[in-house]
Amino acid sequence: MQKKLLLKDYIYLASMLFGLFFGAGNLIFPVFMGQMAGANVWPATMGFLITGVGLPLLGIVAMGISHSDGLYEMGSRVHPKYSVFLTCVLYLTIGPFFAIPRTATVSFEVGIAPMLSGNTTKISLAIFSFLFFAAVLWFSLRPSNILTWVGKILNPIFLVSLGILVITALINPIGSVSQIPVADGFVSNGLFKGFLEGYNTMDALASLAFGIVIIKVIRNLGVENPNTVAADTVKSGFFSMSIMALIYISLTLIGAQSRGLYDISSNGGEALSIISKHYFGNVGSIILAVTMIFACMKTAIGLITSCSETFTELFPNSFGYKYYAIAFCVLSFGIANFGLNNIISFSIPVLMFLYPLAITLILLSLFHKFFKGARCIYQSVTIFTILAAIFDFIKALPDPVKNSLHLDGLISMASKYLPYYNIGLGWVIPSLIGLIIGIIIYHSTFRKTYNNMVED
Predict the structure, then answer these.
(1) CA distance 169 to 166
(2) Co-location of 170 and 285 in the same domain
(3) How far apart are CA 9 and CA 13, in angstroms?
(4) Same-domain pairing of 77 and 175
(5) Do residues 115 and 221 both lie within one domain?
(6) Are residues 391 and 262 in the same domain?
(7) Where is the chain membrane-spanning (predicted)?
(8) pLDDT in tens, 122-174
(9) Residues 6+ apart with CB under 8 A from 169
């Protein structure tokens, strides 16, 4: 008899998904975007929700509907070597290159930096991040109940603390959103700017990495029918992402309202700290800082574990789990000391390259059955998307890098010939062209095969 999940099962699944996705970036980017969007906060929020909530949900749904056993299998529909490339780059991006170092720097920005003078910030970050990743490594190498304890105790405490802050800020706004000035970039393209800001959460990428986790848990609960597994995946994903959407909307609003008294912060971590201190003074800042440090540490432990296990499975004849965990912690520590602003700055070009590949893979997986999973369609779309995404990558590079490599000519050419390139969506039309070419190849191949069968 096919088991049906109960309401408590869906709550458990949604809570687990929320814990997997909700990390440092989910807090800082909507607040910072709200400060910049000002009076145009609603169009920006809508764009942010598309990439910060909609795409991760589609990624989870695509994993369930296409009956995939993970990112590697989904990527293999293009080509096995491409799948290895995509898996490695994606896990390194949501792992030791950007997301894991960000957990330490956000904790530092919110909890430690406000109490320091400018002269001691760098050495303090080095000491803090060393202790942070020493603890992360210790727990990553010694599986214990600490992850459960942190997830069941500290995460709820953090969410309650955040809830108190958000509700207080919404009831007693610092300023009126309609009166807040709008920063450059959000004046006429608020929706598209918000769309691109949602890339920073990295959740659409994470959905490709973590989607299989929710599927395995559903199967372990006794659900065996593939269609039922897919349906339960959609339900739990929708529940979890709805909670995320409410949090994003609230954080964006309080970020915009904060401009009533304060200037735009250097990053979202600083903004969140300022807002917390405004309402609750030093005590509120300390409570938020402590809970955020532990919440970020939990995220870092989960990501180190996930990345180490993935690379161990992907390259079984290389290093073992222990050595990957050590290497990723050391690498994360080194990158964390570049500071939050630099991490964000250098992550943006990578995200501009990776997100189009993730979006097209998700959409193709969703409609997999309609073209019988024809590899020619996967390959055609991916090739055209990669070519265009390279130009998006180039455009998003920091100005000093672009100037030193003399990339102005390439950027000018792309601006002239790639539609929507100037708003960061230069990959859209090439992807559609790749889809059309892939469909033509698919139907011509099908027709040729059919005719040969008839002749035989």
Answers:
(1) 5
(2) yes
(3) 6
(4) yes
(5) yes
(6) no
(7) 12-32, 44-63, 84-103, 123-141, 153-171, 199-218, 238-259, 279-301, 321-340, 346-364, 376-397, 417-442
(8) 899 999 999 999 999 998 887 565 556 555 666 677 778 888 888 999 999 99
(9) 253, 254, 257, 275, 279
